[in-house]
Known about the structure:
Chain B: This is Xylose transport system permease protein XylH. The complex is a heterodimer. By secondary structure, chain A is of the alpha/beta class. Chain A is 32% helix and 27% strand. Chain A folds into 4 domains: 1-87 and 167-251, 3-Layer(aba) Sandwich (Rossmann fold), CATH 3.40.50.300; 97-165, no CATH class; 262-346 and 433-513, 3-Layer(aba) Sandwich (Rossmann fold), CATH 3.40.50.300; 360-430, no CATH class. In chain A, helix 4 packs across helix 5. The longest helix of chain A has 16 residues, at 180-195. The model of chain A is unreliable at 1-5 (pLDDT under 50). Chain B is globular and about 55 Å long. Chains A and B meet through helix 10, helix 11, strand 20, helix 13 and helix 14 of A and helix 1, helix 8, helix 11 and helix 12 of B.
Amino acid sequence: MADQMTDQILRMSGITKTFPGVRALQDVTLSVRRGEIHAICGENGAGKSTLMKVLSGVHPHGDYEGEVVFDGARCEFGGIRDSERAGIVIIHQELALSPQLSIAENIFLGNERSRHGIIDWNRTNHEAAELMRRVGLRENPVTPVADIGVGKQQLVEIAKALSKRVRLLILDEPTAALNDEDSAHLLDLLRGLREEGITCVIISHKLNEVTAVADSVTVIRDGRTIETLDMAGGHVTEDRIIAGMVGRALDNRFPPHEPSIGEEALRIEDWTVHSPTQPGRKVVDGASLTLRRGEIVGLAGLMGAGRTELAMSVFGRAYGTDISGRIFKDGRPVRIRTVQDAIEHGLAYATEDRKRYGLNLIDDIRRNVSAAGLAGLARRGWVDEREEYRVAEEYRRSMNIKAPGVSSVVGKLSGGNQQKVVLSKWILTEPDVLILDEPTRGIDVGAKYEIYTIINRLADQGRAILVISSELPELLGLCDRIYTLCEGRVTGEVPRREATQERLMHLMTKGQE
Amino acid sequence: MSSITPAEVAAGTGAGAGDPGEPRRPGRVSLGGLSLNLRSSGIYIAFALIIALFSVLTDGALLQPQNISNIIVQNSYVLILAIGMILIIIAGHIDLSVGSVVAVTGALAAVLMVDMGLPWPAALAVTLVAGGLVGAWQGFWIAYFGIPAFIVTLAGMLLFRALTLTVLGNQGIGPFPDAVRTLANGFTDGYLGNVGLGPLGGADLFSLLVGLLAVAGMVVAQWRTRRSRAGYGQAVDPVPLFALKMAAGAALILFLVVQLARFKNLPWVLVLLAALVLGYSLLAGRTVFGRRIYAIGGNLHAAVMSGVKVKQVVFWIFVNMGVLSAVAGVIFAGRLNQAGPTAGGSFELDAIAAAFIGGAAVQGGVGKVAGAITGGLIMAVINNGMSLIGSPSERVMLVKGAVLLAAVAFDVWTKRRAGTAR
């Protein structure tokens, strides 16, 4: 369809990119119309990022086969500076900002407003203020970037791109780290840029956003272009895109589950946590929750509502200061002062940030799986390596971790497989209560289904599960009961049959009305 | 029921950017069908090449019995320090104070044994405890107070040198009791007499038997490890490569022992060193405590969130470093037969260099005791070989600096090729 449009700003054709031993892209075609928002969808590892690296010159001309035509001219970018000069700017998922520098300094980083090598601060801050107005960022240009939220940092990146007179803006998972409000603002901003004639290419896993904002969608699977969908008319659904991404119809994104709910496993009462960095600020404020065996409980909240902080503070006070409240395990009050205490009392917490808090990326599957439950595999301080191998191998099979063996280094696994290693690590500690913080973040559709199946299995084994997630459909599809958290307070408790996205969203934003 | 099963999903994922079923093998070379991991084996190959180089350059003088004995005895204290240092570096820390701790513990031993006339075993015990207390002092500030080890041990470097000077004034204390000198400088006796080795002449039977025992122990232990791993379907070296490695190890040990047996039997420091290497290799590789050290260095936050008692582990590896520094301090003083105010100068740098040449990663989380020892021996051979051919000391320093830089550059390079550097 896009091929019929005459005014193409970008045409990539026959792109093939090979890494040693792996063909990442094979004869990929991408056509982008001038002034549209074009989404690229595909599972992790499908080749989306590689394609964007070809476009932005990270993989220089000569490193790939095929042709890139931008605005009618053949491009042979030797590096990112060449593509930026042509008006193509890429904003990566991990923001490239310098936290201690001001917003204005970051906007003009590498592109300083100067005269004879001396920075012209008036011009810098004035022009920065102008760009910030365009992206809707209401902050002082001299504020350090570290002092503003992730959503606003994203806007700084876009302002930086605008300062380079961008004509084609590429955003790689722009809303992955944003809450719904910031995401909505960002999508509005993209629509505004479209009005100004700036073409956007976004890579996103969030298909609801894609269907909401994109004019066309190109689906990539296994390094090949599968199809380009014209979104005009609104008849292309999320399920239609997913079908293209996974190569088959996906009737149900969640495995069916009949819960058998038992005794109370964990009760938290009047839990209050103060921020370690901002004295006096309550991050969690008098929260009370109950988890029962066999039950999957959801915890919904916008970013900054205190979900992770609540979970980590319960898990051996791994977060926060001046913590008060009571914890009851199997109906008896317990004192949990350290992570070790928490593990001994049968708690497990699988982090939202597995690369930072969950895994030793340079070590292998075996030693990551045993990291938390090592004491159980040791006698008098000596690790029983035979047993360790046996256990790790067992988890590799039962969790379907795709790796040649348990000696594979965890850092090289895909996100879904890494998450399975994290889950294996905690299941090995034989917990009664599992807190799963964003268990499917950054994981592709197929692997998500597997993770949901594992979660259901864990509940069926009589464990209590608390799932923290930013994706409301995930909570609705998975959980038997959902708590909502807003500004550190529990604002609602909704059973599955009564829960809707609208109702949860209403409860999650209660404190802000 | 859903229309897809996890197994079908599995078939759809994983392909693309990198199929985990067939990982690339960067940093591996093939030698006649044998595949070798350069990153972990490179250090041993480099060691062999350096020995071969200097054997040629020195017309074989390098491998003469007396010279081998000299290399071991002259470098024993740095090797002992390297054992403690590798644990600290694996945990992601550093210790700059070990040279000064060597000096202060040596001085304490001298005061106790020479000035106060305490029996040597008691004095040795007190010195080792003092070394442990020094380590506890530094470990407290690092682990529990949260000051970077670089700063704490830089301060320690000054503090303990100052303490040494306060105790000793400007002069040395000696001579040491015979027992201490024997430990530092002496050799095992010919308990079982000599045997003839044909053209090689007479050699000490006891030393040879110890050597054979060591070879047998190594082969049996390695074979059992290999078998148990293979039993769980883990990748192990193919038999020819395994045999080659064992043969190389056996040849090295037997050559070393034969040469030593032809000279003056086994140096006591070699016996001590062998025990320490064996003990600490097991500690690092097979115990929960050792695993914790790797976990902390590999990802501190993940270790905390996995229930590792990080502060305790860090505290104890610094205590351990203090004790090993005291061992090195006593041996160094015993070897010179005097505790001097400048003892241990720049030992910390030698120990750190040994660890990094031996394959430790700058970011922590990677390293082996055997690697650190090999790294230390590489520097020892360079030192010794270059002095045998009469190179001036500035050139020795130049070469050692280049080797250190090259070793770490190689490590970074292989990591980048493996695509894990982030």
